[in-house]
Each structure stands twice: as structure tokens, then as C-alpha cells.
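Morning!

This is the sequence you dropped in the shared folder:
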Amino acid sequence: MTIDKTRLPARRGALPAFTPVPRACNRHDGWTADRQRGFIEALADTGSVKAAAHAVNMTPEGAYQLRRHPRAASFRKAWEAALALGVQRLEDVAMERALHGTEVPVYSYGKLIGSRVVYNDRLLMFILRNRAPTRFTADGRAAARRLSLNDPAHAAELSRLKRKWEKEWDEARAAQAARDEAEGIDELEEMLARRHETYLAQMSPHTRALYDAFIAAQEEDSAARNTLNGRWRESEGEEEDG
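The structure's back. C-alpha cells below.
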């Protein structure tokens, strides 16, 4: 990737102040104090060293080299603080996706026909177990039960509420899946109907007349079969009565 060092450095943020790493040669396209501050701010926003370095038009290799500088103690502390903020932001993004789902395209015969929302229940449970470990544990049981040995009624109520929440969650996901399937079938039927209309429109008048005659003959045959079947049922009924 080519780094454009003519661009301005990233705007400073609200992170705690730190002492920039001193440079032997203050080049305008090097790790200036402004670029170091911009890198720390971008690191707090993205949680990615590579993305933060590119945000200030530098390379991640240069960032790590700067971090190893003998006089980079303050810079390293700011780096760790920014990285912690970046991870927190990534957790927020993951929670948003877990709650509201991710929109994915729906294709049919290689063509885009719409989109649907996909939910990741495993991602949601992972976040809940890490953000609320006293309520959600890896084995699915309420950790509060172990924290309230002297109040078994409270622990039992927590377990009951958890089972109720899981049931409601499963029912909601099943209902959403059914709606998505029904919408997909409706969209497919509409697409097939449009293609059939296009197919008929492309016929010559002679071919269309033959096609209409064929459809009419099919309908007549179907009506005739229905009539014969009805007469056969009537005759069977008369024989049984006799």
C-alpha cells in the first residue's frame, strides 16, 4: 500500500495528554508530535494498529518501531489506554449487531432479489457472559445462584426468569425466520411471474396463438377429467346404495 504523506495528520482527540517520543530529525513526513497524537486517537476509535497508522499516513511497522524507542514510556501508556478504548468500541459494535442483526443480500439464480436480517444468538450470549458474568455463565446457569446461597427463593426466581427469557427469545427468532421464509417465497413467485410475462411478450403472434391454444386445450382436458371423475364417484355411490 502506498502511503500518502502529503495529507494532513488526524485531528486531535480528547485522550489524556502524553509526552510524544522525541525524534532525532523532525521531518514533516515522519512521526511528528501531531501524528503521534493522531495515531493514539485513531487507535482509540478503531482498536486497530494498522488502521490507526494509515489514518495518519504512516505504516504500522513504523508505529511499533516508535513504541520500542527507549524514551517512549509515555507513548506506550497512551497506546495501551487507547487500545482499551478501541476494544470497548468493538464490543459496542458487536452488541449492536447481536441485538439488531446484520443485513445480508438474498440472491436467486445469480441475481439480487432483496435482503434479510440475520441474527447471531451465539454472539449475543458471548457478550452477555462477558459483560454480565454474575448473571450469565458459560454453562448457561445463573451465577447469582451461587452468590445467594442464603436466599434459594431468589436464586430459583432468577432461573425461572432465565428460562422464560430463553423461551421468548427462541419464539421470536422462530417467528422471524418464518417471516423471512414467507417473504422469500413471495419474492420468488413475483420474480417468476415477471419472467413468464417477459417470455410471453417475446413470442411472435403466431407462436403466442399456438401457446394460447395449447393452454386452452389443457384446461378443456382438465375439465373433462374432472367431469369423468365426478360421474365415476356418482356411479360408485349408486352401486354401494344398491
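Headline: The chain has eight helices and two strands.

More detail when I'm at my desk.
O.
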